[in-house]
Specification:
Helix content is 43%, strand content 10%. The protein has 368 residues and is an alpha/beta fold. The chain has one domain (9-117, 133-164, 187-365): TIM Barrel (Alpha-Beta Barrel), CATH 3.20.20.210. The longest helix is centred in the middle third of the chain and has 22 residues, at 187-208.
């Protein structure tokens, strides 16, 4: 591996993964000995550019059937993460997607374009469509990825399982507009969908918990937008949060930590997330909603915080501004533990890669 960017002085500092200390940090057992890093994911196009720039997988055999697994581990390890993603394979829910050409820089565009969910009409808007929908056969869930990653993963790293898409699946299956009507006109159908989603999520999570290397259960479920929740706080408490609470208890009873990634303004249910569902850490911060440093001061003694370097900021800012913000964020969020450095959402392919690497580099250099 090589560092081809002379400004990235922090990448000359070795960072040895240590998932046990990372989890201690997430449980707020005092200030950690170094900065730990977190991301929901890095777009594959970003991973490929970083791989080529630093020659991370140059020594790996690309014809090896396990190459993609080894590549994921190598990139995560090089960047300084203490974990890798590990998911259950098999059938998934099908939605209505819209597709457009990717407008990111041509050197890092998604070849198949960029897609998003149809907000107007999902595949299920009435009971007939509910009955005819091709629900995934839970007997066909597979564990190949978890088995491979458990075998290949170094002892100082762990796996993070991503699941629990309760609000997302509900809005995607019905379409957001249809869901808003159905909450009043066809609530029994909404409740039936919630039960079905719960069945699927429990089955997937129970499989993931069978693997000892899975130490982090990361619920990924966008619940809001810039100014509020997707549905009312009362509906959120009745329809969405019980699923998260049930899975969180199962995970906690199995000795795992439980994170939440959720975009949007969640101020109306923040106490529910912390005190009732009992998440160990919260993720997804956007400057126009809430600064992660403000969250640290408001409720950082009750729950750990993940990321928070706003994606829009990372897209537009210069190197010194990024370094300054990383330092100021760490100054506020590191004391007492309960913080890991990362973007406010994920490393999308439209974030300049040098800006992302600058954030990571300053995290390595930080001494507090």
């Amino acid at each position: 591996m090589k560092n081809t960017n002379s400004t990235l002085k922090g990448f000359s500092i070795p960072v040895k993964p240590d998932y046990e200390r990372f989890i201690d940090n997430m449980l707020r057992k005092g200030r950690p000995g170094r900065v730990h890093f977190i991301e929901l994911f890095l777009d594959v196009e970003v991973q490929n550019v970083i791989d080529r720039r630093f020659d991370i997988t140059g020594d790996l055999d690309k014809s090896d059937p396990d190459f993609e697994f080894k590549k994921h581990i190598a990139i995560q390890r090089f960047l300084g993460y203490d974990y890798c993603r590990g998911n259950v394979d098999g059938p998934v829910l099908q939605y209505h997607l819209n597709l457009v050409n990717d407008t990111a820089d041509k050197t890092i565009q998604k070849e198949d374009g960029r897609n998003w969910m149809d907000e107007h009409q999902g595949p299920i808007s009435n009971w007939d469509e509910f009955e005819k929908y091709s629900w995934p056969d839970l007997n066909n869930l597979q564990t190949k990825s978890l088995e491979k990653m458990s075998t290949l993963l170094p002892d100082d790293m762990c796996l993070a399982y991503h699941g629990a898409h309760f609000c997302e699946s509900l809005t995607w299956l019905m379409g957001y507009e249809q869901l808003c009507y159905a909450l009043y006109d066809n609530r029994d159908l909404v409740l039936a969908l919630c039960d079905k989603i719960m069945e699927i999520e429990i089955a997937r999570q129970e499989i993931a918990l069978q693997f000892d290397r899975v130490k982090i259960m990361w619920h990924s479920d966008d619940m809001g937008f810039k100014t509020g929740l997707m549905i009312s706080p009362d509906d959120m408490r009745e329809l969405i949060l019980p699923g998260h609470k049930r899975l969180a208890k199962i995970s906690h009873d199995a000795g795992r930590v439980v994170f939440l990634h959720s975009c949007g303004n969640k101020k109306d249910i923040i106490d529910d997330l912390i005190d009732d569902v009992r998440f160990d850490a919260l993720h997804s911060f956007e400057d126009t909603i809430e600064l992660v440093t403000d969250a640290k001061q408001s409720y950082g003694e009750r729950v750990s915080l993940l990321g928070g370097l706003d994606v829009d900021f990372l897209c537009r800012a210069g190197e010194e501004d990024i370094r300054k913000r990383v330092r100021s964020t760490l100054d506020i969020c590191m004391p007492g533990g309960g913080y890991a450095l990362g973007t406010g959402n994920s490393v999308a392919n439209y974030i300049p890669i040098d800006n992302y690497l600058t954030m990571m580099d300053e995290g390595r250099l930080y001494s507090g």
